């Protein structure tokens, strides 16, 4: 299934030719000096295309620094006049949109805590009606692809065609190495549904600590994401917000130098021939896997009928457990990841249960 949105290519509105779009700047604009000094050093790297700064900050608890407010727009404009950077800010309500538009901000983004709320997104969309400005939509904090798509649809519905998504990871109950779990499959699903949608990655919010940023950035580029939003601060150690995840402009420059830029495809005939041959092999193997799965399901259905006719339950925990143990260890001998094997078996077992449930609900065979 493909979705139908009217989306312009990134090159129509972002100052980028080849390579990823790099958006950088402090998590929060704190003082005029901090913002201008950071912007100057970012400019000196020659590797940044857009200057960002948070001026309205949604905070979990009241009493924390909630952003410098509209005065930050003046500082951003000073930075823009000096460096030539287009400027980007987060907006979370209609008033923010009005103030940002009045200050001639070049690019807006909607944060994860706003994307989660359709009322908020609609309010922002309504405030944008008739305006031609690029809008980037971060994923919602919870891993809900429909909410993310819904927000993109609302913004597009307001007539905004310069749209991008920003993948910033998802809150999870479990504590992991990441501040926000990447859950890459959601971004991949979004790209599959909307191939023309530019997707950028925000490694700062995924990682929560600067050490992991190069790894996550490279992975995003390898998944064909078209840009990165990386927070940078003149002195991250004294940053008022998100100190651990910000990098200095010099560190940002090193991170960017370390990227390996891979292209979406190669026109080299040797490469394309070899790839076509390998893909043919995969097609044959996939056919075999599906034939075997269909065969297995036929046997599962026979067992289902047998159980129905003898009033035996569908779920057989000890048999299921035996299958899981045996196949997962067999899989690891074959160099298959244990989690991967377990996930596939779970999918198969769920399908067995679904089919046997349908059989249980059908009439018993005449046992004569
Ligand atoms: O062995 C059975 O009893 C089956 O119905 C097959 C099967 C399976 O798919 O392997 C399905 C359900 C049971 O919980 C255990 C195993």
Automatic annotation (TrEMBL):
GO terms for molecular function: chorismate mutase activity; transferase activity. The keyword Transferase applies. InterPro entries: Aldolase_TIM, Chorismate_II_sf, Class-I_DAHP_synthase, CM_dom_sf, CM_II_prokaryot, DAHP1/KDSA. It is an enzyme of class 5 (isomerase). Residues 269-360 form the Chorismate mutase domain. Keywords: Transferase. Its EC number is 5.4.99.5. SMART domains: CM_2. It comes from the Bacteria. GO terms for biological process: chorismate metabolic process. The keyword Cell wall biogenesis/degradation does not apply. PANTHER family: PHOSPHO-2-DEHYDRO-3-DEOXYHEPTONATE ALDOLASE, PROTEIN AROA(G). This is chorismate mutase.
């Amino acid at each position: 299934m493909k979705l139908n949105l009217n989306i312009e290519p990134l090159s129509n509105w972002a100052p980028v030719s080849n390579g990823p779009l790099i958006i950088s700047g402090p998590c929060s604009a704190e003082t005029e000096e901090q913002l201008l000094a950071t912007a100057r050093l970012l400019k000196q790297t020659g590797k940044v295309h857009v200057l960002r700064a948070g001026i309205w900050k949604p905070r979990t608890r009241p009493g924390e620094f909630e952003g410098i407010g509209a005065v930050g727009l003046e500082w951003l404009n000073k930075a823009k006049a000096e460096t030539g950077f287009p400027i980007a800010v987060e907006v979370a309500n209609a008033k923010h949109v009005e103030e940002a538009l009045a200050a001639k901000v070049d690019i807006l983004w909607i944060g994860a805590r706003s994307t989660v709320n359709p009322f908020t997104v609609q309010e922002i969309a309504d405030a944008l009606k008739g305006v031609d400005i690029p809008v980037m939509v971060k994923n919602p904090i919870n891993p809900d692809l429909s909410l993310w798509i819904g927000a993109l649809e609302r913004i597009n519905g307001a007539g905004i065609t310069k749209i991008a998504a920003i993948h910033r990871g998802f809150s999870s109950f479990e504590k992991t190495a990441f501040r926000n779990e990447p859950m890459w499959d959601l971004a991949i699903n979004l790209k599959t549904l909307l191939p023309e949608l530019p997707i950028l990655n925000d490694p700062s919010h995924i990682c929560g600590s600067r050490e992991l940023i190069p790894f996550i950035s490279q992975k995003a580029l390898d998944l064909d994401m078209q840009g990165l939003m990386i927070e940078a601060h003149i002195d991250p150690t004294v940053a008022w917000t998100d100190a651990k995840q910000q990098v200095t402009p010099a560190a940002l420059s090193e991170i960017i130098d370390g990227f390996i830029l891979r292209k979406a495809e190669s026109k080299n005939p040797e490469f394309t021939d070899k790839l076509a041959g390998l893909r043919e092999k995969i097609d044959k193997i996939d056919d075999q896997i599906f034939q075997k799965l269909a065969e297995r399901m036929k046997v599962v259905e026979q067992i289902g009928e047998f159980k129905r006719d003898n009033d035996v339950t569908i779920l057989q925990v000890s048999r299921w457990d035996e299958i899981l143990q045996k196949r997962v260890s067999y899989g690891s001998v074959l160099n298959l990841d244990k989690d991967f094997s377990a996930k596939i078996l779970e999918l198969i077992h769920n399908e067995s249960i679904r089919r046997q449930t349908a059989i249980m609900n059908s009439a018993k065979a005449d046992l004569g």
